[in-house]
Amino acid sequence: MNGILSLPDPYSSKVPAVVLVQGSGPLDMDESIGANKPFRDIAEALSAQGIAVLRYDKRTKIYGKQMLKESPGNVTVEGETIEDAILAAKLLKNDGRINPDKVYILGHSLGGMLAPRIDAEGGNFAGIIICAGSPRILSDILMSQNDDVLSQLPKLLRKIAKKQIAGLKAKFDAITEMSEEEAKQTKVFGKTYAWYFKEMAGHPAVDYLIATEKPVLILQGDKDFQVSTEKDFALYQQVCIGKPNVHFKLYPGLNHLFMKSVYGRVRDFKKEYKIPQKVSAEVLEDIAEWILPK
Fold first, then answer.
1. CA nearest to 260, candidates 224, 285, 284
2. How would you classify the pairing of strands 98-108 and 3-6?
3. Which end of the chain has fewer CB atoms surrounding its CB within 10 Å, N or C?
4. Is residue 256 flagged as an active site residue?
5. Catalytic one among 41, 57, 224, 232?
6. Residues 91-149: pLDDT tens digits?
């Protein structure tokens, strides 16, 4: 798979490093979404501050068709995301230019949700950065997004969409009672099978977060319409009460990509992401300050 290791210039040996882990979907190494490339912005900014950054194409970007052809029902976040992130951590720790004790993970969206699990399953990072993640299970987040869209639709379309959303909820509710074999044979929507959700729900991201004693930084924009301040960021704060290793920051006016929000509504996300922007300089500065020794 293609990847880029961005090194500081001028370069000094044994620099800290970060592995970037994308959100959902078959994304490239820049996490290109519409006209924006948030991971490229992060890599360029952090390497300019003295931090090496490793980013790479997601496995489903390169091998997605092959994976779906061979065993579509078997696809999980383990094979899609977790294995490669652990391999990326090992690659950096074995690189003489990198300080093996200062390798961090930065996960965005679904990547942020999974970051504590990736760490626990073998990433063994120095610290964890969760950008626009969630402590909830994926099906709950998707239902919340659908409900938000529903509330913004005209009356006639709302009636049609309500039936479709009710159908999706029934599918999600049925997953709990399915056996592993049934889940691997049951499509939920598109090319996504029930096992993808069931396997992830069986490894709650929040459990890994509560268990870790490592430094954790949780960031979110308050105009994010894919995860919410009330349901996600506030819940992170709630479950991490009494954990001095976890720090939070909420950014006014920023969307899911940590860029200036223009439309601020989930139904307009395609239009919003078509506007070329850059990740907020304040966010990039905060990440660099958190990683670099004071």
1. 224
2. unpaired
3. C
4. yes
5. 224
6. 999 999 999 999 999 999 999 999 999 999 999 999 999 999 999 999 999 888 888 87
Q: Please say whether the dihedral angle defined by the alpha carbons of residues 46, 47, 52 and 53, taken in this order, is positive or negative.
A: positive
Rounded to two decimals, what is the model's pTM?
Answer: 0.94
For residues 149 and 267, give the distance between their C-alpha atoms in angstroms, rounded to a whole number.
5
What distance in Å separates the CA atoms of residue 223 and residue 263, rounded to the nearest whole number? 9
pLDDT per position as a tens digit, 207-259: 999 999 999 999 999 999 899 999 999 999 999 999 999 999 999 999 999 99
H or E, element range at 163 = helix 155-175
Strands 3-6 and 192-193: unpaired
* Selected catalytic residue, list 108, 139, 144, 256: 256
Q: Indicate if 41 belongs to the active site.
A: no
If residue 159 lies in a helix (H) or strand (E), which one and from where to where? Answer: helix 155-175
Q: Which of 24, 109, 144, 228 is catalytic?
A: 109
End-to-end Cα distance, the chain: 35
List helix spans (H) across 94-154. 110-118, 138-151
Instruction: Give the separation between CA 192 and CA 26, rounded to whole angstroms.
Output: 13
Which amino acid is residue 266, in one-letter code? V
